Amino acid sequence: MAASTITKRVHRVGKKYHYHFGIIETASAAGTETVIPNIPKVGTIVKFHSVLISGSGSTVAPELGRAASWVDDKFDQVIADPSAAAFVDNTTRTPYAAFGGSFYLRSQPNSGSDNVIHTQILIVASWE
């Protein structure tokens, strides 16, 4: 079973709050879903960065949803990264509303269940 460590930092810049979430997953496999609690209910994701640190896999294809067990290409999918790589850096600004207060991360390594993956999500708590 996968384990994860999540750190959250909040900074105020002018009148806006900037959130930084650092997620380290261990024993991550293709079907692993990690809950990221206490996100702003509305915001803009300004950076979604994921790195495969070690394990049997060679690539990750991270996705983010706003409901547990969400379905690809449906309403609850927030970010889908179509290009798998060992290092994924998505800087497309993505506005969202997640009134449940959590994101659900799927890192999706291409093989194995022993993968260590580090993901960073940067959010500005407003729609930009």
Please describe what this structure looks like.
- This protein has strands at 3-13, 16-28, 34-37, 42-54, 63-65, 77-80, 87-90, 94-97, 102-106, 115-124.
- The chain is mainly beta.
- The chain has a single domain (3-124), classed as Jelly Rolls.
- Strands 1, 2, 4, 7, 8 and 10 form a six-stranded antiparallel beta sheet that branches. A four-stranded antiparallel beta sheet has the order 3-9-5-6, with no helix packed on it.
- β1 and β2 (16-28) form a beta hairpin.
- 25% of the residues are buried.
Short account of what is shown:
This protein is 0% helix and 55% strand.
The coarse silhouette is globular
Helix content estimate: under 10%
Would you state the CATH class? Mainly Beta
- Label the structural class: mainly beta
Percentage of residues in DSSP E strands: over 45%
Which value, in Å, is the CA radius of gyration?
A: 14 Å
What is the total number of structural domains? 1
H/E topology pattern: EEEEEEEEEE
Largest sheet: 6 strands, antiparallel
| Annotation field: number of helices | 0
Instruction: Please identify, by name, the CATH architecture.
Output: Sandwich
Number of strands: 10
Point out poorly predicted stretches.
none
How many angstroms separate the termini?
37 Å
Protein topology:
Layout: E1 3-13, E2 16-28, E3 34-37, E4 42-54, E5 63-65, E6 77-80, E7 87-90, E8 94-97, E9 102-106, E10 115-124
Antiparallel strand pairs: 1-2, 2-10, 3-9, 4-7, 4-8, 4-10, 5-6, 5-9
